[in-house]
Each structure stands twice: as C-alpha cells, then as structure tokens.
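WARN no homologs supplied; continuing
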Amino acid sequence: MSMITERPVSNPAGQPPVRTVTEEPATPRRDVRAVVSAYVALTKPRIVELLLVTTVPAMMLAEGGMPSLWLVTVVLVGGSLAAGAASVLNCYIDRDIDQLMRRTKRRPLPAHTVSPRNALVFGLVLAVVSTVLMAALTNLLAAALTLAAIVYYDLVYTLWLKRTTTANTFWGGACGAAPVLIGWAAVTGSLAPQAWALFAVVFFWQMPHFYPLAMKYKDDYARAGIPMLPVVASARRVNAEILVFAWLTVLASLLLWPLGMSLVYGVPALVVGAIFLIEAHRLCRRVVRGEAVKPMRLFHWSTTYLTILFAAVALDALV
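OK structure emitted
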C-alpha cells in the first residue's frame, strides 16, 4: 500500500510552482492490521462465538458445577481454533461460489486480500494445533470429536453435501452440535444421555435457524447453484420443515428436564420454547398468506432462544 502526496517544484520565470505526485510508503502498522483483520474474518468469529455459547454450559452440566478454569480455558481455546479452522477451510473450498454471492463476495478470498494457498495453510495449521491441544490437555475422546467435526464440516458437508442435496443443512447440523459433545467429553471422558439431549437440541435447531437466512438470500444461492431448500423446494415444503424442526428442538430441550434438571432450567425452557414456536408459526403464516415474510426475525430470535436456553443450563448446573 502507498500514500500519494503532492510536492511543489520550483519553476523559473516567476511561474507558479508545479505540483508533482510522489508515492510514500504506507504505515506498516496499517498493512499489518489489514492482514490480521482478513485472516480473522476467514475464521468467521460470529460462528465461533455461537459455538462457545453452547460448549461452556455443557461442560458445567457435565461437572455438576463449574469446571476448573484451566480446563474451561483449554476447551475454549481449542474449540475456537477448531471452529476457526473449519471456517477457514470452508472459505477455501467455497471460494468459487463465494465470489458469485452478494452476501459472501467481500470475504477475503473472493476479495483477493488473502491468497487461496495461504488460507489453506492457515486452516490446516489451526486444525492441527486445535487437535493436538485437545489431545494433550484434555483427553483422546474430546480430541477425536474435535478432529471429526472439522473433517465432517469441510469434506462431507462443504465439499459434498452442500453442493449436491437439499438435505445439506440437516446433515450438516451434526457439525454445529458437536461442541456440546466435545465440551462434555473434555470434562468426563465419556458421553452421557444429557450430552446427547443437548446435541439433539442444537442439531434440530439449525434448520429453523438457517432456513430463514436461506430464504432471505435465496437468489444468491440460486446464482451460485447451491441447492438450499428454499431455492429448490416449494414454500409449503420449507414451511413444513421449519415447523417440524422447531417443534423437535423444543421437545428435545424439554427431554433434558427429567434427566436431572430442575425448575431453574425447566421454566425458561418452556417460556423461550413457546416464543420460539410462535415465531416459527408466524413466519410460516406470512408465507402462506403472501405477506411480507421478514425471515430474519426468526433467524435472530432463534439465536436468542439458544443463548437463553443454554444460560439456563449453566444456571441450573450451579444451583
């Protein structure tokens, strides 16, 4: 990068000075900041944050209280690196379609701020470091689940399912739900029914969470040739899946209640679950009536729902 400045040049015969344009090196700090920002963007920090929201409460429930700060730190760091690795490799694999979609064309690879080779190396390094960290400082089950989540997300979902089937979001849901299993395994070295109930909540939740986003960016996915359900299926089919999986999400959350949870969890689960279902039905009614759909309302509320639900899990584990 460079900065352009104008400098006066003396001119004989009393003529006004002539200004010439010269280039001065840009501040190195600005270049470093831009590069760091681009690499951070590849890791999709918002997705990492959402995954961590589910991991810590799962660890607390597995411990029956607050796990050691050391273990929580290790899992948060390892989980963040793993999620970042999966996202970076996803960006590398999807660089051909990202440049076709308005929502993604400003990402570092289609914007040419990071080279594909560097992104690939960065993603692989993060994957190795996260897996080794989890293996060395937690246990082999947690490390194996971490590596499996990365491999499944990038090779099975991104490279294959996303481009070939309308069920891509369903089968890809296992990746987003994996952190609760990883967190549980890091604490206990095994997986209990409560861990699988939490997994089911996040797994089912991803359909009513993501389909509204796919509805909003339907034309983008169509332009890139990605068979997301709202692109290739009827509105009736999309509505049906949103409602079915919204109900399954809430039922899975209530299934956790008799598995040792108290009213501290049960009451919030009922309340936010009811609101979640109301929003899902409201969206589907708008679609049927041909009204302004506003799918992002359900998208944003689904995030709030999951955050509140897992906050209730954490609180229940403490009391």
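DSSP finds 13 helices and two strands in the chain.
OK
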